[in-house]
Amino acid sequence: MKIVSYNVNGIKARLPRLLEYLAEESPDIVCLQELKSSDETFPEQDIRDAGYGALWHGQKAFNGVAILSRGSDPVERQRGLGGDPDDTHSRYLEADVDGLIVASIYLPNGNPVPGPKFDYKLNWFERLNERAATLLAEEREVVLAGDYNVIPNDDDVFSVKAMASDALMQPESRQAYRRLLAQGWTDSLRTRFPAGGIWTFWDYQAGAWQRDAGFRIDHLLLSPMAADRFGDAGVDKAYRGREKASDHAPTWVRLR
DNA sequence: ATGCCACGTTAGACGTGA
Questions:
Q1: Three-state DSSP class for residue A169
Q2: CB of A9 nearer than 7 A to strand B
Q3: What is the mean predicted confidence (pLDDT) over A189-204?
Q4: Domains contained in chain A, CATH given
């Protein structure tokens, strides 16, 4: 089964690309981020007509996450993370999908550094890690899929120098990601491509796509039981080159 | 050092992204 993480950068603007993707690739599960849509304007019927059940956690203008499942309805387990009752951002959604636990994650960007947005990112990351530890304790097949807004290693970015001061590759961001992995999660794409050099995002600006100036920030983490079923992982890079594309490409893992 | 480009909101720029 193919499980996808796709930051669509606005589901209204990206709906033609998303429907194409569903029709052409027939992924089994799709975790979406950056819906930029309130709950009321989520295109439920279009997605249902494409053969997918959906669960979404929207927000007006920015953030927003969803989980799509081909031929079934995801069963909600949790929306939002615990640990901060004042957090109003829609960045986390967790569901049971045909026996698999799946989370769609949109971790805060955190720029500029330093500042309150970076503090929020690190705090949110700690809350995610607490949730992840709870999920591991269930000893089930779990996939944590999303835009983590973290470049894990120097070989996950086109230019270390160009991004050195960015929140995506600050030591604190990387350490939080490493602490998450150290709980026992498997980074699918890293497992498939241990030498790095694989990008999931290319900026709209400065001809980044044409220069292949990208980096890897969309990750699918597997619990030990899910990792036992690991088959393959990759990036459907061609979708980044289409008309009216998102700045992220669909990133996927295949479980046997 | 800053803007580049794109989206959403909402009718002129501005907030946000990364």
A1: helix
A2: yes
A3: 96
A4: 2-255 (3.60.10.10)
